[in-house]
Automatic annotation (TrEMBL):
Taxonomic placement: Bacteria, Bacillati, Cyanobacteriota, Cyanophyceae, Leptolyngbyales
Keyword Cell wall biogenesis/degradation belongs to the record: no
Species in which this protein is naturally found: Stenomitos frigidus AS-A4
PANTHER family named among the record's database cross-references: ENDOSOMAL/LYSOSOMAL POTASSIUM CHANNEL TMEM175, ENDOSOMAL_LYSOSOMAL PROTON CHANNEL TMEM175
Annotated localization: Membrane
A Pfam family assignment: TMEM175
Reaction catalysis annotation: K(+)(in) = K(+)(out)
InterPro entries, sorted: TMEM175-like
Record field: transmembrane: 6-23, 35-53, 73-92, 99-122, 151-180
Protein family per UniProt: Belongs to the TMEM175 family.
Listed name of the protein: TMEM175 family protein
Keywords: Ion channel, Ion transport, Membrane, Potassium, Potassium channel, Potassium transport, Transmembrane, Transmembrane helix, Transport
Topology class, membrane: Multi-pass membrane protein
Length: 191
């Protein structure tokens, strides 16, 4: 079957996730700048999650540029990824509302890690469906960024109980690491 419906559905879900996240930021009841101070953690958690959703959307787009068709296994792997991403609004709100307390920061890391694992599974299912010598299989032979990201999440999660800000710094570093889209697919498609 064609990939268009899967891409359109995924784009819609990601747009809804971003919308829900922004709606979680409540308008202050004070008309001066002091009313914004309590919203700083909420806003910072929103920015981090917004960047992560943007990264997933961008890489998902690049990934599906190298895909010609999808099977049921791809649909389920994609839904698995969207499940973890759909938890971002809740986790973003919980972490922000609690000023980056240890437990919300650690659980946020768990969601980030499982989203990364789900994305890895999606890429492997797509490669299995298209073949190791396909454009996608050729482009994603080694997944250094994906593997190191999961390792860093696994380090940051327990670290959140020691220093939540250091864990958040690790999450931010991983996001910065991924801001540049996966160029392997673009390079393979151009050749």
């Amino acid at each position: 079957m064609g990939k268009g419906r899967l891409e359109a559905f995924s784009d819609g879900v990601l747009a809804i996730i971003i919308t829900i996240m922004v709606l979680e930021m409540k308008v202050p009841h004070k008309a001066d700048l002091s009313g914004l101070r309590p919203l700083i953690p909420v806003f910072l958690s929103y920015v981090l999650s917004y960047v992560y959703i943007g990264i997933y959307w961008n890489n998902h787009h690049h990934l599906f540029q190298a895909v010609h068709s999808v099977k049921g296994s791809v649909l389920w792997a994609n839904l698995h990824l969207l499940f973890w991403l759909s938890l971002f609004p809740f986790m973003t709100g919980w972490m922000g509302e609690n000023a980056f307390a240890a437990i919300p920061v650690a659980v946020y890391g768990v969601v980030l890690m499982f989203a990364a694992i789900a994305y890895f599974i999606l890429t492997r299912v797509l490669i299995a469906n298209h073949g190791k010598d396909s454009t996608l299989g050729t482009a994603i032979r080694e997944d250094f960024k994906g593997k190191i990201s999961v390792i860093l999440y696994a380090v940051a999660i327990p670290l959140a109980f020691v220093n939540a800000w250091v864990a958040c710094l690790i999450y931010t570093v991983i996001a910065i690491f991924w801001l540049i889209p996966d160029r392997r697919i673009e390079k393979t498609l151009i050749q």
